[in-house]
Design brief:
By secondary structure, this protein is of the alpha/beta class. The chain is 45% helix and 13% strand. It is built from 19 helices and twelve strands. Strand 6 (206-211), helix 11 (218-224) and strand 7 form a beta-alpha-beta unit.
C-alpha cells in the first residue's frame, strides 16, 4: 500500500449538489460530468486517484489534506485512515467492493446564506448572486458561471432512488453522512432514512449530519430516534457574530432548537464544529461556554481554505500568536469534561504560513461587497478585525 494512499478513494463516495461525485468533500473536480454514483465508482476519475496514490503523488484535488498535513495538523485523510484501521485492522483498502462512507450533498436548498458558502451549497446565495451578478464576491460569481449548465440539477437535487441503490453496498457499520444545503428540510433525506428503516439498516448504519438547526421538523427528530449517530452543529459564534456569519440565522432560535434536539434524540452525540476562519479568529469563548454549560463538545479542526480571502492565516503572525495565547489561557480556566473544546490541531494550523496571493485587502474588499448586498456592517460586528486591517493598510499601502 502506498504511503500516501487514502481509504476514501477506495471506500468513499461524496455527492455534490451540482451532480458530480468525488472520493470525499475536499477532492472534487468541478469539470466532472453529471453522473450516477454507480457510473462514478467505475469511472476513470476514481482510477486517476488510485494511480496517483500508487505512485506516491498527491492528486491536485487533494491539496487541502496536503496543506493541512504540511502545517503539522491532522488531515481528513489521516482521520479516515485511523477509522479504517479501527474497523478492519491491516486489511487492504480494496479487500472488498463495499462502501464505508456515503457523503451526501443532495441539493443546495438552504435557509441560510453563510459568509463562506457558495451558490452550489446554498439556494439563498444562489438567489443573491443571480440578482447581483458580479457585484457579489468574485468567488461566488465565478462559481455561478462555472455551473451554468447544471442549475436544473442543483435546484432539483439528487434522486432518492440513485442514493437508495447504494445502501446495499454500504458495509456493516458504514457511515451515511448528510449535509447541505440544509438536510433537515430536504425531502430526499426523509425518503432515504425511511428506506433504511424499512430494510432494517437503521440497526447498523451510523448516521452523521451537519445541520444549522434553524428549522425544526418533528418528523426529522422522530426518524433520527431510530438510528444511532452524530450531529455536527453548524455554529461558529454566538449572538450578533453568529447572525452575521450565518446570514438569515437567529442565534436564539437555532440554539434553542439544539437543546430541544438534545432532549428528544439522546441517541445522537452532539458536536459543534465551527468553521475556523478569519471572522472568528479572535474567539470571545461565548460559544465554548454555552456548549460547556449544555454538555456539548466543540471540535476546532474545521479549517477553512475557501474562499481564500477568509483564511485565518491572512492575519499577521503576531496576531495569530496572540490568539493562541488567549486560547491557552482559556483552557486553563475552563476544566474539560469528555472531549469538550478540542483545540489540538488549531495551534499547528493557525501558526502555519499562508502561501496564496490573497491579503487582508481582499478580505476587506469582499466583506464590503457582501455588506452592500445584505445591509450588514462587518466593521461594527468585528471591530478587532477592522482595527487590524486599518493598521495593515497603513503599513502596506
Amino acid at each position: 500500500m502506498s504511503k500516501l494512499d487514502c481509504p476514501m478513494v477506495h471506500r468513499g463516495v461524496n455527492t455534490y449538489a451540482n451532480g458530480i461525485c468525488s472520493p470525499c468533500c475536499f477532492a472534487a473536480n468541478w469539470d466532472s460530468p453529471v453522473q450516477t454514483i454507480s457510473e462514478y465508482r467505475k469511472s476513470d476519475y476514481v482510477q486517476y486517484f488510485k494511480d496517483k496514490f500508487a505512485n506516491n503523488e498527491w492528486p491536485v484535488e487533494c491539496n487541502r489534506c496536503r496543506r493541512t498535513e504540511e502545517s503539522g495538523a491532522k488531515s481528513k485523510r489521516k482521520y479516515e485512515i485511523d477509522k479504517f484501521k479501527l474497523k478492519y485492522g491491516n486489511a487492504p483498502y480494496d479487500h472488498d467492493d463495499k462502501i464505508d462512507v456515503l457523503d451526501l450533498r443532495l441539493s443546495n436548498l438552504c435557509n441560510q446564506a453563510c459568509i463562506f458558502c457558495n451558490p452550489v451549497n446554498s439556494s439563498m446565495i444562489q438567489t443573491e448572486v443571480e440578482k447581483f451578478g458580479d457585484q457579489h464576491t468574485e468567488t461566488n460569481w465565478k462559481t455561478l458561471n462555472e455551473n451554468m449548465g447544471r442549475w436544473d440539477f442543483i435546484r432539483n437535487g439528487w434522486s432518492s432512488d440513485d442514493i437508495i441503490k447504494q445502501i446495499d453496498d454500504l458495509s456493516i457499520g458504514g457511515r451515511l453522512y448528510f449535509t447541505g444545503g440544509e438536510p433537515s428540510i430536504l425531502k430526499q433525506v426523509f425518503e432515504i432514512l425511511e428506506y433504511c428503516i424499512k430494510i432494517e439498516r437503521n440497526e447498523d448504519l451510523y448516521l452523521e449530519f451537519s445541520s444549522n438547526f434553524h428549522a425544526v421538523n418533528p418528523k426529522f427528530f422522530e426518524l433520527l430516534k431510530k438510528f444511532k449517530g452524530r450531529m455536527w452543529i453548524s455554529f461558529d459564534a454566538t449572538g450578533a457574530q453568529y447572525e452575521y456569519i450565518r446570514h438569515h440565522g437567529v442565534w436564539e432560535t437555532a440554539s434553542n432548537n439544539v437543546l430541544e434536539f438534545q432532549k428528544q434524540v439522546p441517541n445522537f452525540r452532539l458536536e459543534i464544529t465551527p468553521a475556523q476562519f478569519i471572522l472568528n479568529a479572535f474567539p470571545d469563548f461565548d460559544l465554548c461556554d454555552w456548549a460547556y454549560e449544555n454538555d456539548i463538545d466543540v471540535v476546532h479542526d474545521n479549517f477553512l481554505h475557501f474562499p481564500p480571502w477568509l483564511d485565518i492565516r491572512l492575519l499577521p503572525f503576531k496576531h495569530r500568536k496572540r490568539i493562541w495565547k488567549r486560547i491557552q489561557e482559556y483552557r486553563k480556566k475552563r476544566p474539560t469534561k469528555g472531549n469538550m473544546s478540542i483545540w489540538d490541531n488549531y495551534e499547528k494550523f493557525i501558526l502555519s504560513d499562508y502561501v496564496g496571493k490573497e491579503t487582508l485587502l481582499d478580505t476587506e474588499y469582499n466583506l464590503d461587497k457582501i455588506d452592500k448586498i445584505r445591509g450588514n456592517d462587518w466593521r461594527k460586528t468585528f471591530p478587532w478585525l477592522h482595527k487590524i486591517i486599518k493598521k495593515y493598510k497603513k503599513e502596506n499601502t
